[in-house]
Design goal:
This protein has 767 residues and is of the alpha/beta class. It has five domains: 5-174, no CATH class; 228-467, Glycerol-3-phosphate (1)-acyltransferase (3-Layer(aba) Sandwich); 477-571, Winged helix-like DNA-binding domain superfamily/Winged helix DNA-binding domain (Arc Repressor Mutant, subunit A), CATH 1.10.10.10; 573-652; 658-761. It contains 32 helices and 15 strands. The strands form three sheets. Strands 6, 7, 8, 9, 10, 11 and 12 form a seven-stranded mixed beta sheet that branches. Strands 1, 2, 3, 4 and 5 form a five-stranded mixed beta sheet that branches. The mean pLDDT is 89.
């Protein structure tokens, strides 16, 4: 709109609401209005009143404002304020310590304002919000009161609307990242949708509507983020500072692709779902969105992260902290759903971690459906449709959290989040950790009809998001080196062997359009060597250079950490790994080898269903056929000739099954062995299973029945337990003991087959 309110005057009466905190602002705005009036030739009736809106937009002091509103209803109400330009208006600038000590540079004190105007008046820009007649405002106020009494009186309502109009005008000059919601609770509580919901809850619960509204006030206060431009700047600077402690300043991403998604977010209701490997993920995502002028994202997380200091800052930068448990609290669910629907209506992007918790093993974890379900429910209640879910894969050269994950998976107790914990976490980042990579998948677009007509919609949507996040996950140098060295273990590799193995893996992946980080490009050899040195300095890998050749290996006590990095890319190799195992089974078959191959491929696919995101069965089979045809178009004929199956497998390079699946098979074997010792009448719950599996697993490692401590982990054991339960082997029943023993034997045979594949791979890849 025009920045001259007189250009929009259609009546001979106008009331200016001057948003000023002190006399300097009031005087400067009054002089600006005088100048505009003289230029416009306006001869009608004009009045002015001063309110301090920007100082506290959620609780405006309206003392005496009711008298100013005692004018003709046809009077045009026009709000004005000063936009103070500062260094913060430069993209990626953040408040300095001096700014925080002196106060918000966007809201200077009287003395500061006087000095700014004297030194450079162009930094004080007078702006006007979109005006409205008092009659229109009264009509909207009365409409709102028919649903709920959320405004004390007309003066509070008009002051709030003036603040909203001014923020819209200010945002046009400052940028989309400063688009923030105001008077959120009042706007929601005054809606007809909210009124209907409260009435329904009252009928169902027996509580009065007033009791429900009063309780809901507490939930609104707890849930609703209160973003503020200054604190957004502070958070932006804080995020950048944390990233710089250990990582390179420049985040690696496709900026053109990012700009495409910014347009989507501005035009559609959206949710940005990111993979979660470390506490750095949320900070990184916030930094990227803020620095690239996205509308204020509302990041949803557990209330456990709202500890002293961090909770204060995060809430004022757009964070929504949600209770860990509220299953039986229908009013809390209702308030949360209404809040999310409001944000979707206003096109504020929602963002949270897809998995709901950090991945302690590296690979993408199964999604937590709760948050996605509430967002989809909110979309059904909102006026918007076609929610755009944007998957984001965040990856790192190295992650400091991995040491803690390895300890937790071995049974250590997780340290609870607190301010002291956070300070300790920041100290741990002060080491070279390389680069951060962000990759954006294609949006998963969900309509209301999609959700309403399909009971499995939630699972299907989550599956699509997971598949897309996996698809765009790049292969990092750390991950590929870990995979190569773990595959060769217990043998070390020379730099030549290591390079050859990684080249073969890279060539295979490139033919399948798998992305790689820039470390593998010819011009980045120096950075590649830096990453290798970081891996050595952190004791992730060992380098021995006192013999005739320098060799590299993963130390036995570092297998769990190296496995984490390997697992970040293992999904790219799973289909090939399952194909290799099925080929080996077919090679040893005494019946129709084609039938044996497909039966085994399907069985293995089902066995790892709790670990990986698979395509549907027919797509999976098509992928297997394509993989085999890539190496040998006559693979079916050779498979029919059992004598040719081994040759087919030998040429199936790179051979990856042993480097990809060993910890899963060994962990499942441990759980199966534990249950194989139980009679028909006994079972173990999950907690008892974990205790027994760790005890037996440590013994099995000492006896070398398993090859790596990376196979001893809580999540691996829990998934093994789920697998046994899905096969009906957990609950006591007649004859179950024999079935348990058979499954244990099957896993031992599978582990033996995996070792055969490792030996077969030695001349080619991993030895």
């Amino acid at each position: 709109m025009a920045n001259n309110p007189y250009e929009l005057v259609t009546t001979d009466k106008i009331l200016f609401i001057i948003d000023a905190e002190h006399s300097v602002e009031e005087k400067y705005l009054s002089e600006w209005i005088d100048k505009l009036r003289a230029e416009s030739g306006f001869t009608g009736q004009e009045s002015r009143c001063v309110l301090s809106i920007a100082a506290n937009p959620e609780n405006i002091d309206v003392k005496g404002f009711d008298k100013a509103l005692d004018v003709d209803p046809n009077t045009l109400v026009a709000p004005v304020r000063i936009l103070w330009k500062s260094s913060l208006d430069e993209m990626n600038e953040s408040p300095r310590l001096a700014d925080m000590l002196k106060g918000n540079p966007r809201r200077p004190s009287r003395a500061q304002a006087r000095r700014i105007i004297a030194d450079d008046a162009t930094k004080a820009i007078c702006i006007a919000g979109k005006p409205a007649t008092l009659a229109d405002l009264i009509e909207r106020f009365e409409e709102r009161r028919r649903n709920a009494f959320v405004d004390k009186d007309l003066s509070h309502y008009v002051a709030g609307q003036a603040g909203l109009a001014l923020e819209v005008a200010e945002r046009r000059l400052r940028g989309s990242r400063y688009k923030i919601p105001r008077q959120v609770a009042n706007q929601i509580r005054s809606s007809y949708r909210y009124k209907q919901g409260i009435q329904k809850l009252s009928e169902e619960s027996g509580e009065t509507e007033e009791q429900l509204r009063e309780r809901a006030r507490v939930y609104f206060s707890e849930l609703v983020a209160v973003p503020h431009n200054f604190w957004q700047d502070v958070m932006g600077g804080f995020n950048r500072w944390v990233i710089s402690l250990g990582y390179e300043d420049k985040l690696v991403m496709d900026k053109k692709r990012l700009m495409r998604f910014r347009k989507i977010v501005q035009e559609h209701p959206s949710a940005i779902l990111w993979t979660h490997k470390t506490h750095m993920d949320g900070l990184t995502m916030q930094a990227v969105l803020f620095e690239n002028d996205f509308p204020t994202p509302h990041t949803m997380g557990g209330i456990n992260m709202a500890f002293a200091g961090m909770g204060f800052l995060a809430r004022r930068a757009g964070a929504i902290f949600i209770r860990r448990s509220f299953q039986d609290n229908n009013l809390y669910k209702f308030v949360l759903r209404q809040y999310l629907a409001y944000l979707l209506d206003k096109r504020f992007p929602l963002t949270w971690s897809f998995e709901g918790t950090r991945s302690r093993v590296g690979k993408l974890m199964p999604p937590r459906y709760g948050m996605l379900k509430y967002v989809l429910d909110a979309m059904e209640e909102s006026s918007q449709d076609n929610l755009h879910i944007i998957p984001v894969a965040i990856n790192y050269d190295m992650i400091n959290d991995v040491k803690d994950y390895a300890a937790e998976q071995s049974g250590a107790i997780k340290r609870p989040e607190s301010l002291s914990w956070f300070v300790s976490y920041l100290r741990g980042l002060k080491q070279p950790l390389g680069r951060i990579y962000l990759d954006f998948g294609e949006p998963v677009i969900v309509s209301k009809a999609d959700v309403q007509n399909d009971e499995l919609a939630l699972q299907k949507i989550a599956f699509k998001v997971g598949v897309e996040a996996n698809r765009v996950t790049p292969i990092t140098l750390t991950a590929l080196m870990s995979m190569s060295l773990l595959g060769a273990s217990p043998r070390a590799q020379t730099i030549g062997e290591l390079q050859d193995n990684m080249d073969v893996l890279r060539t295979w992946a490139e033919h399948r359009d798998v992305k790689f980080t820039s470390d593998f490009e010819e011009g980045n050899r120096e950075h590649m060597l830096e990453i290798i040195n970081h891996m050595i300095d952190s004791k992730l890998i060992r380098r021995y250079d006192e013999g005739p050749e320098t060799v590299y290996a993963v130390a036995p006590d570092q297998h769990a950490e190296a496995s984490y990095y390997r697992n970040t890319i293992v999904h790219h190799f799973v289909t090939k790994a399952l194909t290799e195992l099925a080929l080996m089974e077919a090679a040893n078959a005494t019946e129709n080898s084609i039938d044996v191959f497909w039966r085994e491929a399907d069985r293995l696919r089902d066995m790892f269903k709790f670990e990986f995101f698979y395509s549907p069965t027919e797509e999976f089979r098509a992928d297997v056929k394509a993989e085999l045809a890539f190496f040998d178009k006559s693979w079916e004929k050779k498979l029919e000739k059992r004598t040719s199956t081994s040759d087919l497998l030998k040429n199936f390079t790179p051979i990856v099954a042993h480097a990809s699946l060993k910890p899963y098979i060994e962990a499942y074997r441990i759980v199966a062995d534990v249950f194989a010792r139980l009679p028909d009448t006994e079972t173990l719950d999950e907690k008892a299973m974990l205790t027994a599996s760790f005890r037996y697993g440590r013994q099995a490692y000492l006896q070398r029945r398993i090859t790596s401590k990376a196979s001893l982990g809580q999540i691996l054991f829990k998934n093994g337990y789920k697998l046994l339960d899905s096969y009906g082997l957990v609950a006591p029943s007649e004859g179950v003991a024999e079935k348990r023993k058979k499954f244990s034997q099957d896993l031992r045979k599978l582990a033996h087959r995996l070792e055969q594949i490792r030996v077969l791979a030695m001349p080619h890849d991993f030895d």
